[in-house]
Write a structure and sequence with these properties.
12% helix; 37% strand; globular; single chain; 4 helices; 7-stranded mixed sheet; 225 residues; mainly beta
Length: 225
């Protein structure tokens, strides 16, 4: 259970999209996938606006082989239990929209991809999934596919894009994902990040913004003993 602004949700799962902006695919020199790339983040990673992002000591003590990255994204929250949702009914099942920062242990992820292992652990460290600062109802956003996204690191813009560049749009994503899994109230779906991802260090302040929703502000701190 997590409180986001004035709302409290109790998700059963966090489903994320990988490689859903072409410029992000290009910066990672990956092939464009033929279908959506889905991965999960575990619930222990969830925090919200103003809470610290914990830089794991296991990664910090070997920074030559490890790196922690930010990723700004548009997320949406499921309103009710649903399965096999047609695209024409998508927005009936969405509670609203929020900002998501998909923190990633990048070099760990790359090692797992190369060795054909699941990249589960690189995505699910404690505090590696930030959502907020509020949930904006679907009725308050006319077009979720025309929202500016921006991420600042210590006041410097690192990511800047618009959700119009999403390769797989929200109605298709809900239809696709719900064909595999029953979605439950409070479930979070993060739609992917554009180019410009990069590393953070303890002491950094990250501001992740989506137009008409707001800004997530979080400081990175080193994990204590």
């Amino acid at each position: 259970m997590i409180k986001i602004g004035y709302d409290t949700i109790n998700p059963t799962k966090i489903i994320c999209l990988g490689l859903n902006y072409q410029d992000h695919i290009d910066e990672f020199k990956r092939e464009t996938p033929k279908e959506p790339v889905l991965f999960n983040k575990t619930l222990n990673c969830l925090i919200t606006d103003g809470e610290p992002i914990i830089y794991p000591k296991i990664l910090y003590t070997d920074r030559k082989n490890n790196q922690v990255d930010y990723e700004v994204e548009l997320a949406f929250i499921i309103k009710d239990k649903c399965k096999n949702v047609p695209q024409t009914e998508t927005y009936d099942h969405i509670l609203g929209y929020s900002v998501f920062n998909d923190i990633t242990a990048r070099k760990m992820q790359r090692r797992d991809v190369v060795s054909q292992k699941p990249w589960f652990k690189s995505k699910s460290f404690d505090t590696f999934g930030i959502i907020g600062p509020r949930i904006v109802p679907t009725s308050d956003i006319d077009d979720p596919h025309d929202l500016n996204l921006e991420l600042k690191l210590n006041g410097i813009v690192k990511q800047s894009s618009n959700t119009k560049h999403l390769m797989h749009k929200i109605p298709f994503l809900v239809e696709y994902i719900s064909s595999f899994f029953t979605l439950e109230p409070g479930d979070i779906i993060a739609t992917g990040t554009p180019s410009g991802v990069g590393p953070v260090q303890p002491g950094d302040v990250i501001e992740a913004t989506v137009e008409k929703i707001g800004t997530l502000t979080n400081k990175v701190i080193l994990e204590e003993d």
